[in-house]
Amino acid sequence: GYNEVAETHGHPLLDFLGKFWGISAWMLELIIVLSAVLGKYSDLVVVSALLVVNALLSFMQERRAAGVVRTLRRRLQVSARVLRYAIWQVIPARELVPGDIIRVRPGDIIPADVKVLTGALSVDQSALTGESNDTDKAPGEVLSSGSVVRRGEGNGVVMLTGAKTFFGRTTELVQQARPKLHIEAVVAKVVRWLFVIVGALLGVVVVLSLIRGVPLMEMVPLVLVLLMSAVPVALPVMFTVSMAVGSKELTKLGVLVTRLSAAEDAATMDVLCVDKTGTITMNQLAVTGVIPLRATEADTLFAGALASQEANQDPIDLAFLAVAKERHIFDNLPKVALVSFMPFDAKNRRTEAVLQQNGQRFRVMKGAVRTIAQACGLQAAEIEALEARVSDSALKGYRTLAVARGPETGVPALLGLVTLYDPPRPDARQLIATLHDLGVPVKMLTGDAL
Fold first, then answer.
1. Please, what is the Cα angle at 243 between 241 and 249, to 5 degrees?
2. What is d(CA 259, CA 263) in angstroms, rounded to the nearest whole number?
């Protein structure tokens, strides 16, 4: 089959007829049957109209929302570079099959579970794991479907597609989930109590009829009267109309409502569980602190920024360049010319650049603390002490890198440590405060503590 998670689309007619199935629909249908038996055609027409209007409103709104979702999916179709018949070609990702050789580059969405054959890559797996930090992948490792390539290029072989991938299995579980709707629980409770009341009244009527010797068939009109008076026949329509109006208002605010009851369900939630990365945080790393060792903060940030490239669009590089610009690190300094640049890869675990300033060449690097410390010739005890400081920062959710500078061919000196973190979104504090004021506590789902 195609490399996609198959959606179960019911026949439109069956979907429409399904609107006549449920507690609220049964309630109206019972009244329709009794009205037809007793010849109360005016009641039959009114209740039938309410039942049909309720079904039409719900069906049309959900079909419209489903159409919008399908249009978005078509526009967001992913393509893949695949080697077939000894020719590289671009095809829709849904046509990939296990065994295909594909090539991925920065910015590509991994279209299937792929085993890396050649090259070294750094991928963003936040859609799968919630982690904002990129993950390095070397030959032999697997790229999960749904990941995004940040740096590096490489070839890989497709291992699993569609619903067999980790991302596909997760999608299937979401599609199979059928939570009980709050509105259904409310209507069921109301109808249940109404039927208890009607049943009690009918019991009294039957007992009195038997005592007085009145034929039970003469009590049927009274049953209809009791049902019509006790059961709110406009209740289902009222719910549907009010939710349709609410969905229209939400649409004006840019919210896509895929089913009418979604707005009502959201309004009745008592706890909101949210993902951390990209939801209450920016999913963009930022420098939060500098720990100078053999240089000032400015010198450490200067070297770290020189060991970064904006063209790579690497989150760490962008964080160093942003803080250097914010603190005017490069202002009033002699011009620096780039001689060479070595980007980060899984093997060397650092970025490195050779630059020239005032006719002299020098080298800067930044990367994993142990890697940079070893490059600087530090002893094992000193490295352990540095990693202990890194562990303290990690407990706060920070990521720590080391920065070094030295001559072009000599041993560099460790300048300092730089901590980075994923800052919260500007509106996160207000959103959480508003929800708390509404009595809805917010729980953050994150894997940082694992």
1. 105
2. 8
| 261's tokens | 């009851």
Pairing of strands 360-367, 350-357: antiparallel
Domain boundaries, the chain: 12-73+178-265, 286-421
Give SS3 for 91: strand
Range 97-107 burial, b when 16+ CB lie within 10 A, else e: eeebebbbebe
Q: Give the Cα separation of 328 and 376 in Å (integer).
A: 28
Report pLDDT for 312.
64
Contact by Cβ (8 Å): 419, 291 = yes
Residue that wins the pLDDT comparison between 381 and 28: 381
Instruction: Determine how β-strand 101-104 pairs with β-strand 135-137.
Output: unpaired
Whether 136 is catalytic is no
CATH of 286-421, one of 3.30.200.20, 3.40.640.10, 3.40.1110.10, 3.20.20.150: 3.40.1110.10
List the catalytic residue out of 275, 299, 345, 448: 275
Which pLDDT does position 233 carry in this prediction? 58
φ, ψ of residue 158 in degrees (nearest 5): -70, 125
Which tokens in the block code for residue 60?
């049309």
Is residue 274 over pLDDT 50?
yes
pTM of the entire predicted model: 0.48
The answer to which of 170-179, 193-202, 338-347 has the lowest mean pLDDT is 170-179
Distance CA 338, CA 344 (A): 17
Q: Look-up: residue for tokens 């940030």?
A: 301
What mean pLDDT is predicted for residues 19-30?
73
Q: Which CB contacts under 8 angstroms, 24+ apart, belong to 93-96?
A: 93/3, 94/2, 94/3, 94/4, 95/2, 95/3, 96/3, 96/158, 96/161
Q: What CATH code would you report for 12-73+178-265?
A: 1.20.1110.10
C-alpha–C-alpha distance, residues 232 and 241, integer Å: 15
Residue 183 vs residue 2, higher pLDDT:
2
3-state SS, 97-152, equals: CCCCEEEECCCCECCCEEEEEEECEEEECHHHHCCCCCEEECCCCEECCCCEEEEC
**Rounded CA gap, 150 and 145, in Å?**
14
Q: What is the pLDDT of residues 407-433, one digit of tens each?
A: 988 889 999 999 988 888 888 889 899
Q: Which residue has the tokens 């009918």?
A: 202
* β strands within 325-369, DSSP E: 336-342, 350-357, 360-367
Dist. CA 365–CA 406, nearest whole Å: 9
